UniProtKB/TrEMBL annotation:
Protein name as it appears in the record: NAD(P)/FAD-dependent oxidoreductase
UniProt keyword list: FAD, Flavoprotein, Monooxygenase, Oxidoreductase
PANTHER family referenced in this protein's UniProt entry, alphabetically: MONOOXYGENASE, PUTATIVE (AFU_ORTHOLOGUE AFUA_8G02570)-RELATED
Database matches in Gene3D superfamilies: FAD/NAD(P)-binding domain
Documented EC number(s): 1.14.13.-
Species name: Gordonia westfalica
Keyword Oxidoreductase: yes
GO molecular function: oxidoreductase activity
Enzyme class at the top of the EC tree: oxidoreductase
Domain of life: Bacteria
Family of this protein: Belongs to the FAD-binding monooxygenase family.
Length: 491
């Protein structure tokens, strides 16, 4: 990299969002220059970072996949290697390899209104060297997780445990759990994935949860989707399946929100049918909150329930008093013996990757900004961020954001604008960005941007509402456009 490279768009992150944004740029604005900077050594984001046993999607790939690239694998709930193959194919098919700069972490970005450009500070994660790149736009596709550290509570007596403690975000490649007793702390998507995967080799696996989670079984393969692809071909069959699954996701979500007690009874009935006759369903599968106040956990082919029925795994609902030399002492007085403890206790949120943003020398305080159309931040010019749905497939939202982003670029080109930023009414009431009960969200709300009470200032979680919003006019009274005062000189 030269001292200061120049691009039209700098995409941060070579995960599913960044790769998608690059593809849309290639097709909608082929004359624009762009680079993708990735702090890690490989593309794939989440699907390359996490290496724990059984890692898979918790959304079907017909909606988690890109609209422009059919998912042709028979698995609908797919494991990570298949998703990685899909992402690598997208990179190759769209000639993106040469645009990705690995081992480049964005540290800071400074906007100059005089130049209508960002000056971005980069650090090479393999050497520590510093470099800079100048960009007209930043598209932040890094998601909202902290890729450096997961969330691990402080457990009393943790240093006394003589076995091995592992966090799923930093899974050792050489971890040998064959014939060993494993306790997985947690009840979310990671825990319900680990339980059946590790039980194949471990002596026994116990999932220790403080609070139960709603769990529903789904077929790993979507028979209707596979039939539609056979009848109509991959592209048309994929499109039809995508429409079907988007509708199913929305109907399930609305049912849970409008009729929570009915949804609770339905889920309980399904769980009970999958478990041993005398299993205490209301102890281990009866969350204190309503369905979809937090994300539902999907288990493909009911593997979690099948493993419990086999006796290879069990669930304990209790609180931890302390770790011991040989396991975990619970508040009930019971001690769970363990050779390995897996802390599947969640993730940390780090919005926009923790980048220090400044606008004309003034630091940007994210909690003081308001999100516009779910893609821009009030008062921050030429900056797009990609955050997907929490109640449906992440990529459904990303696709809509990328299409709007490309339309906005075209609008600015045709009207001779160099910069754009949203302006929020200072008297507009605001609320937290994500209306979601998950612990990792609640812990981070004070660090996140806000949302307003109505469109376009809401962080919509409805694909249908967003599709209508983004199909409307590109510009509205909330956007301000400008030309760079020195653009002619620097061009």
């Amino acid at each position: 990299m030269t001292a200061v490279d120049r691009v039209d768009v700098l995409i941060i992150g070579a995960g599913i969002s960044g790769i998608g944004a690059a593809r849309y740029l290639r097709t909608e604005h082929p004359s624009k220059t762009f680079s993708i900077v990735e702090a890690r050594a490989a593309a794939g984001g989440t699907w390359d970072l996490f290496r724990y046993p059984g890692i898979r999607s918790d959304s079907d790939l017909h909606t988690f996949g890109y609209e422009f690239k059919p998912w042709t694998d028979k698995q609908a709930i797919a494991d990570a290697p298949r998703i990685l193959d899909y992402l690598h194919e997208t990179i190759e098919e769209n000639d993106l390899t040469g645009h990705i700069r690995y081992h480049h972490k964005v540290v800071a970005a400074a906007w100059s209104s005089d130049d209508a450009r960002w000056l971005v500070d980069l650090e090479r994660t393999d050497s520590g060297e510093r470099a800079q790149i100048s960009a007209r736009w930043i598209f932040c596709g890094s998601g909202y997780y902290d890729y450096d550290e997961g969330f691990s509570p402080d457990f009393a007596g943790e240093d006394r445990f003589r076995g091995q403690i592992v966090h799923p975000q930093h899974w050792p490649e050489d971890l040998d759990y064959a014939g060993k007793r494993v306790v997985v702390i947690g009840s979310g998507a990671t825990a319900v994935t680990l339980l059946p995967a590790m039980a194949e080799e471990a002596a026994h696996v116990t999932m220790l949860q403080r609070t139960p989670t709603y769990v529903i079984p789904l077929p790993r393969e979507d028979a209707i989707a596979n039939s539609l692809k056979k009848i109509f071909g991959n592209e048309r069959g994929y499109a039809l399946t995508r429409q079907k699954n988007v509708a199913q996701q929305r109907i399930l979500f609305e049912l849970c929100q409008r009729f929570p007690q009915v949804a609770r009874r339905m889920i309980r009935k399904i769980n009970k049918s999958q478990l041993p006759e005398d299993f205490p369903v209301d102890v281990h599968f009866n969350p204190p909150y309503d369905p979809w106040d937090q994300r539902l956990c999907v288990v493909p082919d009911a593997d979690l329930f099948r493993t419990i029925r086999s006796g290879k795994a069990s669930i304990v609902t209790d609180r931890i008093a302390s770790f011991t030399e040989t396991g975990i002492l619970l508040e009930s007085g019971v001690e769970l013996e363990a050779d390995i403890i897996v802390t599947a206790t969640g993730l940390n949120i780090k919005i926009i990757g923790g980048i220090d943003l400044t606008v004309d020398g003034n630091p940007v305080s994210l909690p003081d900004t308001v999100v516009y159309r779910g893609i821009m931040l009030s008062g921050v010019p030429n900056f797009a961020l990609a955050i997907g749905y929490t109640n449906a497939s992440w990529t459904l939202k990303i696709g809509l954001l990328c299409q709007y982003f490309c339309k906005l670029l075209g609008y600015m080109d045709s009207h001779g604008h160099d910069a754009v930023w949203p302006v929020a009414d200072p008297d507009m009431p605001t609320r937290p960005l994500l209306d979601f009960g998950a612990g990792y969200v609640q812990r981070a709300l004070d660090t996140l941007p806000k949302q307003g009470p109505h469109a376009p200032w809401v962080m919509s979680m409805s694909y249908y509402a967003d599709r209508r919003l983004f199909k409307g006019d590109v510009a509205d009274e909330n956007l301000r456009f400008a030309r760079a005062r020195q653009a002619q000189v620097l061009a």
